[in-house]
Amino acid sequence: MARWATSQCELAHGDVLQTHLQLAHPHGVRRAGGVEDRLSRYLGAEAKTTSGLGPEARRDWRGSAMSYHMLERIGRIPLSRHFSLRQFLYSEIAAAHNIPNVPDDIELAVVTGTRLCQDILEPIVDLFGPIIIRSGYRSTRLNAFGCEHRLRCASNKRNRAYHIWDQRDHNGHTGAAACIVIPEAAERYRPDQIDELASVLHRHLPITA
After folding, report:
1. Reduced to 3 states, what is the DSSP secondary structure of residue 179?
2. What distance in Å separates the CA atoms of residue 95 and residue 127, rounded to the nearest whole number?
3. How far is CA 63 from CA 59, 149, 150, 161, 177, in A?
4. How far, in Å, CA of 119 to CA of 108, rounded?
5. Under a CB-based contact definition with an 8 Å cutoff, are residues 139 and 102 in contact?
6. pLDDT at 55
7. Is pLDDT above 50 for 25?
């Protein structure tokens, strides 16, 4: 059973409910089915089962530019029925400051992201319909920049196994987090009923607090 380490609900932008969710694995990552096949299918010969992408691709990722075709292939990697990796890579910080937001360890990011989507986000979609990803994966470089410049990012130490999906935290735990907007929830719950929404999520999600 996954541990829901963080669950917060708040009124965002005045009219939609936003939740902050983390799926963490206390005893290391649980293998998500078909990860190696998905990496091979979408990344081809670049895929490595234990170290993410090959050397050329990893150099591209750390450089100032990455090929359109590689980014497209990465973004197409499916995480669950309704979600692909692309939906979690967009960042206003990345766009405004030209910082690549792609994982160093693609395999771990896909494994933890898959568990987040399958175990947490898909059940929410079943309950409320479409959701909006407000903030998902953050690279260490992007998150460090956001923290340094006070752009609503905690430190890398605090965000490992949280928004930094492809690194373990100081206890060796793996995990992934996303901030999401639930438009339908705004129609069902008033701002003073946020605790009720949190209770609904706790009752329906396959988690332990």
Report:
1. strand
2. 32
3. 6, 22, 24, 24, 26
4. 16
5. yes
6. 45
7. yes
